[in-house]
Write the structure tokens for this entry.
Amino acid sequence: MKLLRYGNPGSERPGMRDTDGSIRDLSALVDDLSGQTLSDHLLEVLHDVNPSSLPLVDPTVRIACPVSGSGAFIGVGLNYRDHAREINLSPPREPILFLKSLHAISGPCDPVMLPRESVKTDWEVELGVVIGKKARCIRPEESLGHIFGYCVINDITERAFQLEREGTWTKGKGCDTFGPVGPWLVTRDEIPDPQHLELWLKVNDELMQSGSTADMIFGVAELVSYISMFGTLHPGDIIATGTPAGVGMSRKPQPVYLKAGDVMTLGVSGLGEQRQTVVPWQFTPEGQTAG
């Protein structure tokens, strides 16, 4: 199943993509697709639903992040062999973990806002994992059963903030709008092997990244197990599993970074596509950041 959330920010509703690509409303069956509702029971309920019996949704509606109420947004760094090679680093002996701010989460086609003083904002297409069952100190062979589904993530990163400022990677990873998720949350039964998926990303229609999850240093099952050793994973938690080669900071003959007006398109096989326009940093009159 391809599940999603749709509507304006703050008033999103749960939905399902049917076999014709139309959006169907799920509000009569579940209040929201959230950390409070994701479960094996929900999977069973939705599998028995005939999508054609559900109300159709306006196809021009905004698509939101497919899960709400996430308690953690966890990133994995340097997890593709080709990416390690392109930045001349040895593969890590253990997964490199970092946290992205929950405020970075946005819809798959929402604008991406350059941070104030940004000079090196970069792109990273990634396979996303959404937890569906509480996981604490689980074994790798148990991991896939704790996953509710998979999605596309753009782990946008300001490299100067990440690598040239004091402290951890958090400064470059957690800026507002730096975590587009979706368009769909594809349930785990449709992705029997997450290590055979293709990823790609374009900037202004120029292909920048093209890779496969088969190139991961630490596979999805190992990552979920490993992360669960350091803190309990809960339903709705999101894991971004790393990016393949082709990021902007590694482009030759010189790095390429995002600027206002650029358009990113990206996707993962079977999980849909995203499209974001880069906008300049700004404030609304109320003092809230806006894109």
User: Anything to note?
Assistant: The chain is about 10% helix and 30% strand. Confidence is low (pLDDT under 50) at residues 287-291. The CA atoms of residues 104 and 176 lie 4 Å apart. The domain at 69-279 is CATH 3.90.850.10 (Fumarylacetoacetate hydrolase; domain 2).
